[in-house]
Model the fold of this input.
Amino acid sequence: MKHRSKPLYLLILLMLAGPGFAQDPTIDRMIAAQCAQCHGTDGHATGDIDSIAGKETRDLYDKLIDMKEEDRAEDIMEHQAWGYTDEQLYRIARYYSTVAEDGDEDEEDEDEEDREDEDDD
Ligand code: HEC
Done:
């Protein structure tokens, strides 16, 4: 996978570009990694916080934009969302939409868990 050796200038270039410019999932994952501190590895929360894995890109993105647009950030997430450009929020949303959902949210698809294990590269 030659993605991994992309130089830093490319990352900066991508951040300046509008949504949809580049599809590099490695960069999406790097930006999204910040969220894992509270929402768990790959968005699979273990404590009281909501899991964000497996949500629709659009839903997550809209939520994050709403949080960002608060005039006065009052809760934790509004502060989080403030720290990112719209482009970055889009990438984050896109990343978490590609991760398999937690097993305990609902029983829609029991196979999700198995597929998740094969996803590591
Ligand atoms: C410092 C801890 C922390 C970090 C880091 C964090 N979150 Fe959160 N997040 C929370 C808490 C606490 C809540 C629930 C309460 C709230 O809304 O403030 C939450 C709620 C959410 C929700 C709403 C869930 C729902 O179903 O309504 C979304 C979406 C979300 N976070 C996404 C993210 C994303 C994406 C990131 C990375 C940019 C992120 N969070 C980083 C603590 C955090």
Remarks:
- The first helix runs from residue 8 to 16.
- The radius of gyration is 15 Å.
- Residues 34-35, 37-39, 49-50, 52, 60, 63-64, 75-77, 80, 92 surround heme C (CB under 6 Å).
- Residues 105-112 have pLDDT under 50 and may be disordered.
